[in-house]
Specification:
Keywords: Transferase. It comes from Gluconacetobacter johannae. The chain has 16 helices and 13 strands. The protein has 421 residues and is an alpha/beta fold. The protein folds into two domains: 221 residues, Glycogen Phosphorylase B (Rossmann fold, 3-Layer(aba) Sandwich), CATH 3.40.50; 143 residues, 3-Layer(aba) Sandwich (Rossmann fold), CATH 3.40.50.2000. The strands form two sheets. The chain has a seven-stranded mixed sheet, sandwiched between helices. Strand 4, helix 5 and strand 5 form a beta-alpha-beta unit. Helix 2 crosses helix 3, helix 3 runs antiparallel to helix 4 and helix 9 crosses helix 14.
Length: 421
């Protein structure tokens, strides 16, 4: 069965070359790029979008070097060497002049981030020049469904992105059934829905090491919340719980809270509590840039991972904590039940008293089952292969027959066995 050549866009990675800590979407784009570069180097050509409105090919050796450099830096939790940013600039300029000629064999232009998805005309022009179909990954529709959690301009930008998907995409990868449902609902009024494949993200867990984290781990039972500090993640619920607990109990017997994540947007109230609430000082600890290894060790030492988000497209921290055998308390969201089943404890993200009760219960005793093997989830190579198999299948199918099915075909990748159901 012939696989289509892939034109993989790494524009987002180029834009993030100076960042010390990757976002979830950064990780997804990097994992797919590394998988193709290592396992199918002859199949992939890397491309990127230049701000002048042109998408062009990138020099291969320099791109491979850039990807390796980024992976090493992010694994260690360090800001990439200055050469990475210089390399990203050279690659971006190469995109402005790197023409992609028409090819006899049909190709697939794979865009794994939302980076320039609103640039419909630029993408359409590139597809025509490259004799390529468009395959995209839609991570979520949160800016459209929950505009109160986004920057003011983001809902309109995201509508434009989804309109590009509806008009141009030949195949769409989404990380969960919940996102697939939202995307179909959004595209339905337009009358065209491309094939949508549900492929869960891969789970990567750093192996247990002897990395010293004594300077970061509190000398007390503690809980971890992991993710960008923004209103959607519901940090405010946890901070109010800890303030309430600290006001009525002996502070020396309180569990601590470790907050791991960079500061995002629209989070003034959260930051005020972290910086200015005297009750929280010494029992709530904030860390913005930590290596994957140190984060994993902090999570392994925690009583539980707390995940009280109001909305998510997936939830990588949940799977990674569960795979370490760490208890998790999370919001009762359909996407969490889809990816984690009955493994976590589910709570209403607005029910502060219920969260506090469960936190205090877990603080009193380590709830990890003695001798129980933690669950396993599919790794990144397995899921990257699944995503590529999905878009290959869509590319081979007749577009009319795919669109004739109810809402587009859905292929669900099983997390554990890695088989298509």
């Amino acid at each position: 069965m012939t696989s289509h050549p892939v034109l993989l866009d790494i524009s987002r990675l180029l834009s993030r070359a100076g960042s010390a800590v990757p976002t979830g979407i950064d990780r997804v784009e990097l994992e797919y790029a590394l998988y193709l570069s290592r396992c199918f180097p002859a199949r992939v050509t890397f491309v990127a979008y230049h701000p002048l409105g042109r998408i062009g090919i990138l020099p291969r050796r320099l791109t491979d070097c850039f990807l390796r450099m980024l992976a090493r830096a992010w694994t260690k939790g360090r800001r990439p060497w200055r050469g990475a940013s210089l390399m990203a600039g050279v690659l971006l300029q190469a995109a402005a002049i790197g023409a992609v000629g028409n090819n006899v064999q049909r190709r697939l232009y794979l865009l794994l981030s939302h980076h320039h998805l609103m640039q419909r005309d630029a993408i359409a022009g590139f597809l025509g020049r490259a004799n390529a179909g468009l395959a995209v990954m839609v991570h979520d529709l949160i800016p459209i469904e929950y505009p109160e959690y986004a920057r003011p301009s983001e809902p309109d930008r995201h509508r434009r992105r989804m309109d590009t998907v509806g008009q141009l995409a030949d195949a769409v990868i989404v990380p969960s059934q919940d996102v697939a449902k939202s995307l179909r609902h959004y595209l339905a009024p337009g009358g065209r829905c491309p094939p949508i494949g549900v492929v869960h993200h891969g789970c990567h867990v750093s192996p247990a090491t002897m990395v010293p984290v004594s300077g970061l781990a509190p000398d007390a039972p503690y809980f971890v919340v992991l993710g960008t500090i923004e209103p959607r993640k519901n940090h405010l619920l946890l901070l109010n719980i800890w303030r309430h607990m600290a006001a009525g109990r002996d502070r020396t017997r309180l569990p601590h809270l470790v907050v791991i994540g960079r500061r995002g947007w629209e989070n003034e109230n959260i930051i005020d509590m972290l910086e200015r609430c005297p009750t929280l000082q010494g029992i709530v600890h904030e860390h913005a840039t930590l290596s994957d290894v140190v984060v994993a060790d902090l999570v392994r030492g925690a009583r539980a991972l707390l995940f009280p988000s109001f909305a998510e497209g997936f939830g990588l921290p949940l799977l990674e904590a569960l795979s370490m055998g760490i208890p998790c308390l999370c919001s009762d969201l359909p996407v969490f039940r889809e990816i984690a089943g009955d493994l976590p404890g589910y709570l209403d993200p607005l029910d502060g008293p219920a969260w506090q009760r469960k936190i205090l219960e877990l603080a009193e005793q380590d709830a990890r089952g003695a001798g129980e093997a933690p669950p396993t989830f599919a790794d990144w190579p397995t899921q990257a292969a699944a995503g590529l198999a999905m878009i290959d299948g869509a590319g081979r199918a007749d577009a009319g027959s795919w669109d004739a099915r109810a809402g587009g075909a859905v292929r669900l990748m099983d997390m554990e066995a890695g088989t298509v159901c």
